[in-house]
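Technical annex, item 7. During the second reporting period the consortium partners agreed on a shared format for inverse folding records so that results from different sites could be compared directly. Each record opens with the tokenized structure and is followed by the designed sequence. A conforming record, contributed by the partner at site C, is shown below for reference.
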């Protein structure tokens, strides 16, 4: 059988003429995935008849069911027999039975990016956040800022973020169809589909080569981001501390660069001959006083008083006129910012979010204060609990630069603590291309366990010889003071790390796959070790 070609970058409909209302009954293949479930929920909120299938039930499929979606466990042709539109992601293969059935019955096949592009068309202020890393946190923070303090057209924003948003009032799901004119979307660059978007503001957090299995070369990856930047209707906001982002700026041309805003910690930044305006991050520091004891299982007391503090200096020309200094106070205005999420990388993420809010017309002082109400996106430095004096943190970091930033932030927030890492590599291809970079980043930790690789869409036989040892064997050379271990079984790895931890230590589960489940195993083993100690049997420690 000849299967149809599935091209994520193709544009099967005219987004200006085709609307959400034209979708009809819409079926999602793999509806329980993070990206797909968010879009399904937004369509439900727009009144679309939604169904979907997945290999197994999860919390997202159960939530969608309560919202009115028809959910099928297992994928078969019968699931799409009456669908007008079938939505697929890049994880879906051409031989999927629902793809074949959709083609045979004449349903419209749309990639998930097409749905996102259609939703953007409904909003005056669409903001996309793209980058090799930082995009989930930045888009979640911007959504939180607008939701907490947005007024007028910026009140009740729509957003599509690849993770829930944690706030003082609890977690907000990553998808919401609001009544306002603002829309915040995380733009996935992995398959090239982000070229479809034409946002009011395009945020680029960094341009560091990744997904080389798709792009083939670093140059092709860079070119895709440059093209994405040219699609912005009004502004491009990018990080001046990142050489890749500055290369995008250089590609814009003098006239287009007038609409670029650069945020940076470096005062001597080279703007590549552009006419971009700069917002500077300065006086960056962290106060790490902690209240309570580490016996608090929620971890909330241990981290309640910690804060990242810095200031943002804006050119007055970027600030809406009604919020500018009325006393002729100069060409710049400075605002103080305080964050709950740690690290200079999050100061940069916050700068991008705050700048975007201001460019949409928000009061900069309110945008800065609202940033403190952001407790993080799910699986971004998420404290999962504390047992026996050991704090367990879960993080989605799966690129070497992300891991390095995460561990530097952890070292600074917990300067007296040993840092243990349980790392699950994501994709054989990424492990192959970045093995030494992973080793360099992980060497920041004191103790590292690497588990089996999460394959996602890839197969081991296509990448012979790539295993946890591919990374572990390089850690000794990168960091001679880091203990590194290859333990493929995740459950065994989690218990091993828990046994090695002492009171006051930090254990971080790291990766984009199923590693998040290991945090519960770690906490369980720590509780077990505590009971053993109480009974006079000391666990093994280093």
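Designed sequence (site C submission):
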């Amino acid at each position: 059988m000849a299967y149809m070609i599935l091209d994520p970058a193709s544009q099967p409909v005219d987004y200006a003429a085709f609307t959400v209302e034209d979708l009809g009954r819409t079926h999602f293949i793999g509806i329980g995935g993070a990206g797909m479930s968010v879009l399904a929920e937004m369509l439900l909120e727009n009144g679309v008849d939604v169904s979907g299938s997945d290999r197994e039930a999860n919390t997202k499929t159960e939530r969608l069911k309560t919202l009115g979606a028809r959910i099928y466990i297992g994928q078969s042709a019968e699931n799409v027999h009456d669908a007008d539109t079938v939505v697929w992601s890049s994880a879906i293969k051409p031989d999927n039975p629902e793809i074949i059935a959709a083609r045979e019955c004449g349903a419209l096949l749309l990639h998930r990016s097409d749905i996102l592009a259609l939703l953007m068309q409904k909003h005056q202020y669409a903001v996309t956040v793209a980058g090799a890393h930082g995009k989930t946190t930045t888009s979640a923070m911007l959504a939180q800022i607008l939701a907490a303090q947005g007024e007028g057209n910026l009140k009740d924003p729509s957003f599509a973020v690849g993770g829930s948003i944690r706030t003082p009032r609890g977690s907000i799901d990553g998808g919401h169809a609001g009544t306002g004119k603002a829309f915040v979307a995380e733009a996935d660059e992995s398959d090239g589909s982000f070229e479809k978007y034409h946002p009011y503001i395009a945020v680029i957090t960094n341009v560091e080569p990744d997904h080389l299995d798709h792009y083939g070369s670093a140059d092709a990856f860079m070119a895709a981001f440059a093209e994405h930047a040219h699609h912005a209707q009004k502004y491009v906001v990018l990080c001046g501390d990142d050489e890749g982002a500055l290369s995008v700026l250089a590609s814009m041309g003098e006239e287009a660069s007038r609409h670029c805003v650069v945020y940076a910690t470096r005062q001597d930044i080279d703007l590549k001959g552009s006419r971009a305006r700069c917002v500077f991050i300065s006086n960056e520091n962290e106060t790490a006083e902690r209240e309570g004891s580490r016996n608090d299982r929620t971890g909330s007391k241990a981290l309640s008083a910690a804060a990242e503090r810095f200031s943002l200096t804006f050119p007055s020309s970027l600030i809406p006129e009604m919020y500018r200094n009325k006393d002729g106070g100069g060409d710049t205005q400075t605002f103080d910012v305080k964050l709950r999420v740690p690290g200079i990388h999050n100061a940069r993420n916050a700068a991008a979010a705050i700048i975007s809010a201001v460019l949409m017309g928000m009061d900069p002082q309110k945008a800065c204060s609202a940033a403190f109400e952001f407790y993080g996106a799910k699986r971004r430095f998420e404290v999962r609990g504390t047992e026996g004096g050991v704090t367990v943190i879960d993080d989605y970091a799966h690129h070497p630069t992300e891991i390095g930033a995460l561990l530097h932030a952890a070292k600074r927030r917990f300067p007296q603590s040993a840092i243990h890492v349980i790392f699950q590599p994501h994709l054989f291809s990424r492990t192959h291309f970045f093995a030494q970079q992973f080793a360099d980043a992980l060497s920041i930790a004191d103790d590292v366990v690497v588990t089996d690789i999460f394959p996602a869409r890839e197969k081991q036989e296509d990448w012979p010889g790539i295993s946890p040892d591919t990374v572990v064997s390089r850690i000794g050379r990168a960091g001679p003071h880091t203990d590194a271990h290859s333990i493929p079984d995740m459950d065994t790895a989690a218990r091993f790390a828990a046994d090695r931890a002492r009171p006051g230590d930090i254990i971080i589960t790291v990766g984009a796959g199923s590693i998040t489940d290991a945090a519960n195993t770690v906490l369980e083993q720590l509780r077990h070790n505590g009971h053993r100690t109480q009974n006079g049997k000391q666990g093994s420690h280093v």
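The two ends are 58 Å apart (CA to CA). Residues 288-305, 537-542 have pLDDT under 50 and may be disordered. All partners now use this format for quarterly exchanges.
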